[in-house]
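Give me structure tokens for this 243-residue protein.
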Amino acid sequence: MNWRKDQGLYDALHRERGSMQPIVVFLYSSKMAKDCCCANFERALFRDKYASEQFKLWSCYRQLVETLNEDEKALVNGYDLRDDKPALLFFDSEGGLLHKQQLCVDPPKFVKVLKSSKKLSDLRLRLRDSHLAQRKSARGHIEAGRYGRAIRVLDSMVKNKKVMSGYIVELVTQDMREIEQKASTLLVEAAALHQDRRLLDSYRLYQEIEKEFAKLEDLSKQASKHRKELLTKLRGLGIQPRR
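Here you go.
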């Protein structure tokens, strides 16, 4: 195995963009020396003739879990690994997880896993430009405020997440978070506008009621005036109306 000297998980996931080779990271503990899976990887898989030929197509990193810093531990936690077993993590050329292996393997059979993982990485690399173009289209919709269209583009990309490189998945995830945050802001603004609209509608209704009361008051005054005039005329005719 051609391990990168003095380089581990951080170096693997923070190398320069654009590398064509996929990545394999071997994580193990000094306490795992007698573990059967650790021995299986070290003494069988890494020394198998056909597996070794496949590993030459990968950038190979290894690291003791005891030497992981806090940031690296947070990264490892995201892969849901067992603490009592070594791990082989396979990534595409831009750090997207392809496969994780923590149990013993039969080297000749595991060569198929190596080949299929490499093919998936190559597929992601071939589709990279197409995915970047899709993402650019989504960004255009976001910047123009067409969030519905942006969500449709991004959602279709998420559904094809398996064939997207790690870098593009990261970009799409950021875009979705941005839209979610914007949506939350818009909902708050909409709620405020709705409240303002209700207050405005209430004020307008109050004005209409005031107008109606004013009309009723005016009609009442006119009715009272007509009543007095009518009573005066009736008395002039000698008619005394009943109260």
